[in-house]
Amino acid sequence: MPGLLRIIIQRLLLGLVTLFVVSIIIFTAVNLLPGDFAQAILGQGATDEAVAAIREELGLNKHPVLRYLEWLGGAVQGDLGTSMSQALFSSFTGSETGSGLGSVAEQIAPRFRNTMFLASVTAAIAVPISIILGILTALYRNSAFDRSMNIFTLSSISSPEFFLAYVLILFLAVMNPIFPSLSNIYEGMPFGDRLEKTMLPALTLTLAVTAQMMRMTRAAIINLLASPYIEMARLKGLSPMRVIIKHALPNALAPIINVVALNLAYLITGVVVVEVVFVYPGIGQLFVDSVKIRDIPVVQACCLIFAAAYILLNLLADILSIISNPRLRHPK
Amino acid sequence: MSALLKIRGLKIEGRSDEVWNPIINGVDLDLNKGEVLGLIGESGAGKSTVGLAAMGFTRDGVRISAGSVEFDGVNLVTASAAVKRGLLGKRIAYVAQSAAASFNPAHKLIDQHTEAPVQHGVSGRKESEADAIELYERLRLPNPEEIGFRYPHQVSGGQLQRAMTAMAMACRPDLIIFDEPTTALDVTTQIEVLAAIRDIVEQFDTAAIYITHDLAVVAQMADKIKVLLKGDEVEEADTRTMLSAPQEDYTKSLWAVRSFERPTKPAVQTGATPVISVKNVTAAYGKVDVLHDISFDMHEGRTVAVVGESGSGKSTAARCITGLLPPRIGHIEYMGEALPLDYRKRNKMQLRQAQMIYQMADTALNPRKTIGEIIGRPVQFYMGLTGPQRRKRVEELLAEIELEPTQYIDRLPSELSGGQKQRIGIARALAAEPKFIICDEVTSALDQLVAEGILKLLARLQDELGLSYMFITHDLATVRAIADEVVVMKDGRVVEQGPKLEMFQPPHHPYTDLLLSSVPEMDPDWLTNLLESRGVDNIGDAAVDKM
After folding, report:
1. How many CB atoms lie within 10 A of CB B271?
2. Can you list the positions of beta strands (E) in A183-291?
3. Residue B88 and residue A237: Cβ atoms within 8 Å?
4. Where residue B47 sits, what CATH number does that domain have?
5. pLDDT band for position B546 (50/70/90)?
6. Hey, are the CB atoms on B101 and A229 less than 8 Å from each other?
7. A163 touches chain B (CB under 8 A)
8. In what order do the strands lie in the sheet with B337-338?
9. How near does any CA of chain A get to the CA of B420, in Å?
10. Are A179 and A173 in contact (CB under 8 A)?
11. Which domain range does residue B70 map to?
């Protein structure tokens, strides 16, 4: 399908433009915040000279546009810059800046891996559960099962994540010590241990994202049940389960795929609270900390990762939607 | 011999606003093995509801409240869902109105065909596939070996309808319900499907209920006919008796509808300036030309009927005239002067002169606006009337279309019947005080009696206001009733045009001939005779030709 390839290329180019716009917005927004890195790191008692010295050291006294262009110049060459806190640390200890731990990429990489691990574990639990529940609630629509599932998932999506997290800790770590309540994973940890430590945050997130995916699956299927081909399938004497799985589901895939993609993007970008509760070393915490100290290179890099996650997942969803449509897969 | 299907005192109710209202008020029906019953009536008569109830099936919000439906000794009203599932698809099958909507777009035809036999354990997948190919062949589908392996969207409407008949035959059922299977098809395609259905039902001695609103079609298909009106049975008799000697007034009125015809007008004076003139127009969607060098004129106070099958370019021509689709080559003249091709470049005066009335009055009226607002909008936009003047003009227009102004002005479209909605569409077009109105299949979604009312109204307005109509239709009976000139289109070209009388007299262009001879007639032997005169092979060729 040459058409599909063109769509992919177009969307990727558009994605690059989006990333560029995002970087400008983030840079401007962080600059608009009161105070800068130097003031944040030195605190209230800092002398003007000390602040000025750090600004000089890190190039913060240059014009913002110039600083942005310098960053952009590095970024297009794959150099996301140096974390200011690391750079400052290195300059005090006399080591070279821009090497070792100082680079943003090296600082973010392990955090990003952890976040991806948590997102993958959650997706592996939440997506199948949501879709199966969606199918079952569509099949037994308006039954007691359907209503109780709807109430349960809606209550869980309506509760704050930290609350869900503490409830799970209470039941699965304190009262029944099945999983550890601290998720302090580290590099080189065996996969089994890692999985065990990740379980509680993953379950919390599952509760947070299931409702939307399940309800979309249910709604997309029910939406189709009035269509003539479903009536035809029923008039062929097929079982209700077969009607739904074989005849309704394949035509309901596009909206389901889209909502799954949105929720997966959320798992990568929106899990700060859960990370904090379980002390999980993911990218969300790093992001929040960096904003606090106005460490612009790190904030920029995190935001670009978040934006890229949204763009790529949405692109993937669109491609899968196209592939799931026989009209587009088999043109006349 | 006991009846295969025996319906007694069937009452069905539908729910609206939490209240159950009667839809069918007690229908009896007997059908023997191999017999075909035609079920006819206007929309809302409950034909489809009875047809589905004969399968023990009701749609959501509908229930069988009394009576019995006995199929081969099993009462489908009281039978469990599992018992019914065992019969449906296997011994009772269904052919729906729109095959395009009733085939699942996600699966190949043959996968859907073999589903019922395999699920019901009638035959294996391989056998069933071989049988499908044989049925496709019998139904004279082109490339029977291969066509089943296509997806529904890759197959034309007429072929899909035959594939659906084949699918209904898959388990060799005892009874098939045909629910308006040819209503959505062009006349030339309709013949192929009718012939195919009739053949196969005879070959396998299958009983059938054939639901339609087209009397001429039912005359070809049914052994006996039952007439329904608003959920009540009017009468039932064998086909020939029913056609020659209907007993009830309602049935007689149905039979009489086709008699409306306008007196022929004198020929157009040579040299008269046409109101609208289409000059050598070629138009394209994207890079594909869909109209090829078409030209025709429309004169004051006259009706030009543009006929042709779906996809022949009738509506595209209308879009060119209104400027919605600027032609690639050629131009449109109004009273001898060229109009800007793009409607955005036309001034209010020019826009006013060409108005449209649409096929689906349902979707052409904004459901959230009252009738007064819908008609008042063009009154204000084109004529600049506001306040009480605007209201007065809307009332005049409502009176013009024979709807009591005070009763309708504050209603919403959803509170009106189909015919009334179409009248509102006409009033909205009239509000601009145009010279020229394009009527795009305005009666094809309406019942015959209602359609006749609309045609009469349009004729009266034409006489009073000197309007020109471009009447787009695929229904030749309508053409006969109202046209002055006829333009026949095929594949984006005008194949023949001229005054109506000439067009309905031989010699014809071969395509016009095919169109004219394909319109079903009330004579029950019409289809048989036609097939003989054309030779059966010809129909197969026509099908291939349409690919």
Report:
1. 5
2. none
3. yes
4. 3.40.50.300
5. very low
6. yes
7. no
8. B288-298, B276-285, B329-334, B337-338
9. 27
10. yes
11. 1-88+225-254
Residue-wise pLDDT for B353-382, tens only, equals 989 998 888 888 998 999 999 999 999 999
3-state secondary structure of A279: coil
**For testing the chain A interface, which of B57, B102, B109 should be mutated: the one with the most A CBs within 10 Å?**
B102
Query: Rounded to an integer, what distance in angstroms lies between the CA atom of residue B420 and that of residue B447?
Result: 12
Q: Which of A236, A243, A245 to mutate to test the interface with B (most CBs of B within 10 A)?
A: A236
* Partner-chain contact A237 B87, CB within 8 Å: yes
Give the count of Cβ contacts less than 8 A between chain A and B.
Answer: 77
Residue with tokens 């169109």: B515
Out of A237, A238, A250, closest to residue B106 by CB: A250
A154-209 confidence digits (pLDDT tens): 999 899 989 999 999 999 989 988 888 888 888 888 888 899 999 999 999 999 99
> Are B192 and B299 in a shared domain?
no
Tokens at residue B55, please?
């399968």
Q: Residue A297 and residue A292: Cα distance in Å, rounded?
A: 13
Chain A residues touching residue B105 (CB < 8 angstroms) = 229, 251, 326-327
Pick B96's closest partner by Cβ from A232, A239, A242. A232
- Averaged confidence pLDDT in chain B: 87
- The answer to whether the Cβ–Cβ distance between A228 and B115 falls below 8 Å is no
Instruction: Domain ranges for chain A, please list them.
Output: 2-102, 108-292
What average pLDDT does the segment A93-121 reach?
Answer: 76
- Which CATH architecture is the domain A108-292 placed in? Orthogonal Bundle (1.10)
Give the whole-angstrom CA distance, residue B467 versus residue B461: 7
The answer to whether residues B141 and B200 touch, using CB atoms and an 8 Å cutoff, is no
